[in-house]
Specification:
3-stranded antiparallel sheet; 15% strand
């Protein structure tokens, strides 16, 4: 199963459950996701699949998501493919 970007929570490193902390939102979340998808360092952050129905798990990398290079280009205008 590939994960949609809307179900990805950005939380501080060491989080036991993304449902118990306030994750990043707005511009901070967008910038963290951009770095993660582009392979840039994101020190102190973790990325979790956290659907509303429960069953969260930590993601090992962007390849687990349903976002490809064209979508990253569209969302963040990186100029890279």
């Amino acid at each position: 199963m590939r994960i949609q970007i809307g179900s990805i929570e950005v939380v501080p490193e060491g989080t036991i459950s993304p449902y118990r902390v306030t994750g990043y939102c707005g511009k901070a979340r967008s910038e963290a996701l951009r770095k993660w998808f582009m392979g840039e360092p994101t020190p102190g952050l973790e990325f979790w699949y956290a659907p509303a129905c429960g069953g969260a798990r930590k993601l090992s990398g962007p390849e687990e998501t349903d976002v490809d290079a064209d979508q990253v280009e569209y969302m963040w205008g990186t100029g890279r493919r």
